[in-house]
């Protein structure tokens, strides 16, 4: 049985001022993690792109703000606020921001990730 997380690990805020740059036009803040799940909030500037040729984790993202062109295994769609998408483990995907935006992403980790 896992140890109970400490108070400071149970509650978090994710303001943009605490986000760290991870790529050109993209910054991220880790909101929390527990066992095999990680949740993050990511800010994208218009035109920023992220491509993963083969993801090692299952993930799901929810669009809080902005518009994104999402491609998963060759299938593409433009999504805006309240849209969401799923990327199965092992799938390639890309995210292209079409208007400044924010994604809330939850990843299910596998193995030693």
Topology diagram in text:
Layout: H1 7-10, E1 20-23, E2 26-34, E3 37-44, E4 49-52, E5 58-72, E6 75-79, E7 84-87, E8 93-108
In terms of DSSP E residues, the strand content is over 45%
The number of helical segments is: 1
Biggest sheet statistics: 8 strands, antiparallel
Helical fraction: under 10%
Q: Rounded to an integer, what's the Rg over CA atoms? A: 14 Å
Mean pLDDT: 88
The tally of strands reads: 8
Kindly describe this structure.
It is a single chain. By secondary structure, the chain is mainly β. It contains 1 helix and 8 strands. Strands 1, 2, 3, 4, 5, 6, 7 and 8 form an 8-stranded antiparallel sheet that branches. Strand 1 and strand 2 form a beta hairpin. The model has no long low-confidence stretch (mean pLDDT 88).
Structure, briefly:
By secondary structure, the chain is mainly β.
Q: What are the key terms here?
A:
113 residues, mainly beta, 8-stranded antiparallel β-sheet
